[in-house]
Amino acid sequence: MRVCQVLSRFPYREQTEFGGTLSGYAVGGVERHAWHLATELVALGDDVTVITTAARDDSRLSEMGAGISVIRLPSGPRLYSASLPLGVAGALKKEKFDIIHAHTPVPAIADLAAIGNGRRLPFLLTYHNDIHRGGLVGRIAADLYRRTLGRVLLSRCDAIIATTVGYAARSSQLRGYMDRVRVIPNAVDCAVFRPGIDAEVVRRKHGLSRDDRVVLFVGALEAYKGIDYLLRAFALVAGQVPGARLLLVGAGSQNEKLAGLAAELGIARRTIFAGYAADDELPLYYNSATMFVLPSVSCLEGFGIVQLEAMACGVPVITTSLPGPAEVDRHGVATIQVPPRDGAALSVAMKRLLTQRETASAMGAAGRQLALSRYSWPAVAAEVHCLYETLLKEHARRRR
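and the corresponding structure tokens:
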């Protein structure tokens, strides 16, 4: 099958294998998702081409290889914070594809692909999350996009991939297109995120002893993550569990506020603000942990891929019962789910995993098995490939 993936940016090899960064060409979860998916689709026998934009120093950079063809277009003019690569339609018509698979929330390039395609080929969109912009101007721009180009994009999709039913049903954009929504979850690289990795380097770096019981958070230090509730819950636990330590990995606008709260609660010496960690360091952090906590309080948390990473590493998880994160482990075999903003319930769950080692170990093992069976890249890519085949058959019937 000849597959065309379309997204605003696609990683260069220097950004993945060597952990580098490019000024003005940052890649995050969406871009890495598309890269992993393309790699697995090639392994399934698909011919994959990616249409994306080029970095300023493109000529000095290397493509990912692995059988993935990449067409990089000039970024073109800008629409608010998004590029408008005007060559998308021409690139789609020049090549012979069977299906187009675009990714959003970054606007413009997916919209241009949908308009350029018309109804010529089956068009699939992975809707990673709603568009959110800070400030009054940002909110106005996001709302204007949703009412105009965003509607055009969704109306031209044959199917829309959402990571969970709950997020799709509550999305301001998707709720009007639920008949087209197909749920396929995010995935995790279970070869990279795995149990049994020696995390001594992380423990030494942060002054953790082998007897310390580590409560780990990984993510942006932003209000919607609910880290203030985590701190208050940990303060209730710290006095009852000797050796309990809280390790916060990430950075964000709440750094100073959270550090002040830790001091106010008397847990500053038990709380470590580790700052940003590179991708290759994350498996070490997970393997240093007794448990992982995702205390999010807002539906901005559409899925919580960090909990997949923790589960793949065999670490038990506490999360909140928000629609997206709660769907990751529907039967509660690897996670304890507590109500958002309920510090008391969170502290009870944390104390349970800190003191009941057999329970924590069993949950961690179950999480590893769930990650392998449901959330590994081969499993998720196989679901996407099957959806491609379904869309191609439906498209062929409509054209008869």
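(Above: one complete record from the training split.) The chain has a mean pLDDT of 89.
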